[in-house]
Write a structure and sequence with these properties.
alpha/beta; 2,3-Dihydroxybiphenyl 1,2-Dioxygenase, domain 1; 2 domains; 9-stranded mixed beta sheet; 8-stranded mixed beta sheet; binds the ligand O=C/C=C/C(C(=O)O)=C(/O)C(=O)O; binds fe (ii) ion; 2,3-dihydroxy-p-cumate/2,3-dihydroxybenzoate 3,4-dioxygenase; Glyas_Fos-R_dOase_dom; metal ion binding
Length: about 280
Amino acid sequence: MIKLADVSYVRLGTRDLEGATHFATEYLGLDVAERAKGSVYFKSDAREHTLCYFEGDPGDQVVCFEVEEQSHLDEAAAQLESLGHPVRRGTASEAALRKVHDFIAFRDPTGNPIELAWRPAYSGRRYHGARDAGITGFSHVGLCSSDLARDEAFWTKVTNAQVSDRIGDAPLLRIDEVHHTIALFPSAKPGIQHINHQVETGDDIMRSHQFLKDRQVRMVFGPGRHPTSSAKFLYFEGPEGMVFEYSSGVREIADELLWRERQFMFEPKGFCKWGAKPNITEFNK
Ligand SMILES: O=C/C=C/C(C(=O)O)=C(/O)C(=O)O
Ligand SMILES: [Fe+2]
């Protein structure tokens, strides 16, 4: 079993690095951690970086999870290979680009590129945000799934992920006490379905709603409140159609023995208890 300790970073290809950088700093509210040749790194919390935009195909979208021990990479590689997932060991220069000590790369059954990294860098510099969006950190990803049952089985049998709740057949998966760190949503094609940052309060959600709307950022869902995690939320569109979410107040499952996963309807009321309707393909039948 592969123990995922945390979600670490996402890497997104872009055809417009300057435009993506403008969005990430001025609108989303991240800090530039570093500008490198052909890429820009952003921080959202205590880590050195949690997002990297690089010049390339916007279809190149990678999510990385941290593992606790270097030996876990070898064990994970052997297990994944035995299950028919080809694994590639990152080179030293690729690891340096990701600011990690060592990593492996593979694809989940849908074809989503996944990395597992050991010793991702933390930062000596405090995150303060280019604008006051109230971000407290990078928290979860939605992943596209071409077969929800198959992919739920992959994540829950091959890794430590456990189902917290389901919306229709879409599972929200936790790897620690946070209600979910990975969510799977139906889609014919692979990719990151959304990227979540936690913000401090519901006021931050509402302030950002006004701020982003005033700047013609396309709102795609909310403000609203998830019945699942009970978090208040706002989803909006970033560069090249990527959906970003702010949420606040995500449930923590402190006592696993007392928790039973719940079934919600795959319809707007399963996604929002305030009545907002998603304008997000993967959240609609
Ligand atoms: O209702 C759909 C989404 C649920 C949640 C949540 O419960 O917080 C998400 O953050 C999500 O998967 O987008
Ligand atoms: Fe989310």
